[in-house]
Amino acid sequence: MALNLVKLCVGCTAIEDLAAWIDFRLDERRRAGLSPEQFHTTRMVPKRVEELLAGGSLYWVIKGNVQCRQILTDIRTFTDDEGISRCHLVLDPRIIVTEWQPRRAFQGWRYLTSEDAPADEGKGKGRAKLPPELRNELASLGLL
C-alpha cells in the first residue's frame, strides 16, 4: 500500500484556485525556459520517501476539507540560499477530485495512509459538478 501526504492548501478557497495556480506556475516556468514541472516546496523532508513514491499522492485540504489530490512523482532535497534543508514535492499537475473529508488546521504536512485517505470522486457527479461559490456556500452551511 502506498503512503500519502496531506497538506493545507493555503490561499485557495476552491479546487479551481489550485488549478489556476498550477497553470500559472507551469506557464511561468515555460516562459523562463525551464521544464514545466509542478512542485511544492517544504522545509521538512519526509523520511518515508520510498513508500510515498510507490504510488502516493499529496492530498490538499481546502476550506477545512480534503477535496483533491495530486500524484507524487518525486521528492528532491536541496539546501536553500540560507543553508536550510528543504525539499521539492514534485507533483503530477493533474488534480484528482476526491470525496470531501473534514480536517482541522495543522502546520506542515502529515502522513496519510491509504486506508484513511478519501476515495476519488466519480467523474461528472457530486460536488465537483457544482459551481465553486455554491459548493463553498453549501459546505459553510454544513450541507456538504
Automatic annotation (TrEMBL):
It holds the Pfam family DUF1489. It comes from the Bacteria. This is DUF1489 domain-containing protein. The lineage of its organism: Bacteria, Pseudomonadati, Pseudomonadota, Alphaproteobacteria, Hyphomicrobiales.
